[in-house]
Design a protein that fits this description.
- This protein is α+β, with helices and mostly antiparallel strands.
- It has a domain of about 250 residues: 2-Layer Sandwich (Nucleotidyltransferase, domain 5).
- It has 20 helices and 26 strands.
- The strands form 8 sheets. It has a 6-stranded mixed sheet. A 6-stranded mixed sheet has the order 21-17-16-24-25-26, with helices on both faces.
- Helix 12 packs across helix 13 and helix 16 crosses helix 19.
- The chain is globular.
- The protein starts with a strand and ends in a 7-residue tail after the last helix.
- About 55% of the residues are buried.
């Protein structure tokens, strides 16, 4: 029996296949564009869907006996569709500023405290309900044709199985879901003027939607007995796939977005969580909750740096047969050594990583990135190093903000492409002052998918048995001397947002 995990991200999707013992076999990947303009940030859901189906078809061509496919995706972004699941518009990404006025009106009618008490999150325009209100008011003709509203996971589940269902963790990202009753909130939807009939059924993470539709099975080359499973938001799937089952461990998701996911053994205080815009999310383990502390630009920032500043380094890295990231890390270490300094010496630059706005604990889409400390001697490797440091400092801001919410984790498990960088992992351990264990499989979201899908398909009895799939790799211990060095720089960094933000008001 083989299972597949389908992990759909903001810029690309992957379908990973595991054997009956939970061992990795193969994966297919496709990327797709996002459009970022001053007026909005968008993604074409039809292109995304086609990319997802291509990944499944590629893996089914090699492994036609896949017994189950679990689906996880990024959150917030939604699309209105017709009855067949065909998108009626280009979807707004979570970073799109549209919906801010609608969010304010919702708060005026219900209050920030009431919305947080219902949904487990402080109101913000990134969440789906505000953008649905915007579409209703600005594109009424299109809105009137809508039969469904789907986020990415439930859109794909619907296309594959014909069942309209969404897991609890993604349902919360609409800001219209009651985390106490685990139902869509009539109070919020009625106040917003959005029809509840548009929304899919909310179900626990790991709930099977049923078997794949006959036409999709034939199109993709799969058995009609293949089970389709709703897994949840990508960070939830990654947390499970990284082995975070209680409050003793949190997960560092080092992907396009940098996300710290702590687990709570009971529901945390909503008021305390709301101060830092930390959402309270039902977890895959019944009775436990997760939260998200994140920066919009993790890997996205390093990619910007490489694409914008390191053109010559990219060519050199290609000729040497190594990644440009590795080359920049080596160049920085060499430069520091030649100066008689430690290869891990902080860059001295201050990089505010708000290149797509600020996420927690500020949730300020108007904030912008900044690089301070440049000289004529500054090269691409120093700027790259500064970007790595900026992401670490931003997560330390979040770690401090989480400190009074009941967290008890003393270690991190790291996933995502960034976890392959020993330099960045050691830096995170040093800045946060916590040991970090990188997982052997960086795509922990697909591991989490396969675990929950294996349970749904009868491959595993429970999470405890499925957790045999989880394999740690390298642990990076924090170094007290480096933590002290970074904290000297952090004293300046934590003043950066407050200093730069007023200068952006008129830009």
């Amino acid at each position: 029996m083989k299972t597949a995990g389908l992990d759909i991200g903001t810029t690309g999707c992957k379908c990973t296949v595991f054997d009956e013992n939970g061992r990795y076999l193969d994966k297919a990947y496709r990327d797709y564009p996002v459009r970022r303009r001053i007026t909005g940030h968008e993604i074409d859901m039809q292109v995304l869907t086609e990319s997802v189906l291509e990944c499944i078809e590629e893996m089914a061509g090699k492994y036609p006996d896949i017994a189950g496919i679990g689906v996880t995706s990024f959150g917030e972004t939604f699309v209105l569709t017709d009855e067949e699941g065909r998108p009626l518009h280009t979807a707004m990404l979570y970073t799109d500023p549209r919906g801010s006025g609608e969010c304010r009106r919702l708060v005026e009618r219900l209050s920030e405290e009431r919305i947080a008490a219902i949904t487990g999150m402080r109101p913000h325009e990134m969440y789906g309900i505000s953008k649905m209100m915007w579409l209703r008011d600005n594109e009424p003709g299109m809105y009137s044709q809508a039969k469904h509203v789907f986020q990415v996971e439930d859109l794909i589940v619907y296309i594959l199985s014909g069942k309209a269902q969404i897991d609890y963790s993604l349902a919360t990202r609409s800001m219209a879901f009651d985390i106490t009753t685990l139902k869509w909130s009539d109070e919020i939807l009625d106040t917003a003027g959005i029809e509840k009939s548009l929304f899919p059924e909310a179900v626990p993470s790991g709930t099977p939607a049923g078997r794949i539709k006959k036409d999709m099975a034939e199109k993709l080359g799969l058995s009609q007995d293949t089970v389709i499973v709703s897994i949840g938001q990508d960070q939830i799937a990654a947390a499970a796939g990284a082995g975070a089952f209680d409050g003793s461990v949190a997960v560092d998701g080092a992907g396009t977005v940098e996300c710290l996911t702590p687990i709570y053994d009971s529901r945390p205080d909503i008021e305390k969580m709301s101060r830092g815009y930390f959402a309270v999310v039902p977890y895959v383990v019944s009775g436990k909750y997760a939260a998200y502390a994140f920066s919009y630009t993790g890997g996205a920032l390093t990619r910007w740096c490489v694409d914008t500043i390191a053109g010559e380094e990219k060519k050199l890295a290609e000729s040497l047969g190594i990644s440009v990231n590795e080359l920049l890390e080596k160049q920085y270490a060499k430069k520091m050594t030649e100066l008689g300094l430690s290869p891990d010496e902080p860059s001295g630059l201050l990089v505010l990583p708000h290149f797509a706005g600020a996420a927690t604990p500020y949730m300020d889409t108007g904030s912008r990135g900044a690089i301070l400390g440049l000289t004529t001697d500054t090269g691409a490797c120093e700027i790259y190093r500064g970007c790595l440091e900026g992401v670490c400092y931003e997560m330390y801001v979040n770690y401090k903000a989480l400190s009074d919410t009941g967290i008890r984790f003393k270690k991190l498990h790291a996933t995502g492409g960034g976890s392959k960088s020993a330099v960045w992992m050691q830096m995170k351990a040093d800045v946060l002052g916590l040991p970090i264990t990188a997982m052997k499989t960086v795509d922990a979201g697909t591991v989490g998918c396969a675990m929950l899908t294996g349970i749904a398909a009868g491959q595993f009895k429970d999470l405890n048995e499925a957790s045999a799939m989880i394999q740690p790799s390298v642990t990076y211990e924090p170094r007290a001397d480096m933590h002290e060095k970074y904290m000297e720089h952090f004293k300046r960094y934590e003043k950066l947002y407050g200093a730069v933000r007023p200068l952006m008001q008129t830009v």
